[in-house]
Amino acid sequence: MRETYHIEIIGPEDAPVQRASIRSTGLDAARERALRLFRRARVPQRSGPSAEAVRIVDGAGTEVFRWSVWDEGTGPGRGGR
Length: 81
Hints:
The structure is a single chain. By secondary structure, the protein is an alpha+beta fold. It has one domain. It has 2 helices and 4 strands. A 4-stranded antiparallel β-sheet has the order 2-1-3-4, covered by helices on one side. Strand 1 and strand 2 form a beta hairpin.
């Protein structure tokens, strides 16, 4: 069954700088997409506020994954919820 996930790229002071909604069969696919968007948002050429974190919210409004620049050394499976 497909579920809707909302991905938010978070800038300074927890302000969202980019949002995307995707439909996926599971959280793993949504997490891969979120991390890809986060890496793209952190490239030096990008203008605007710097990306500090990414989070995924499920269709019910519950945060199911969060990853920040401070989690970079721990691997994506360990820093999320």
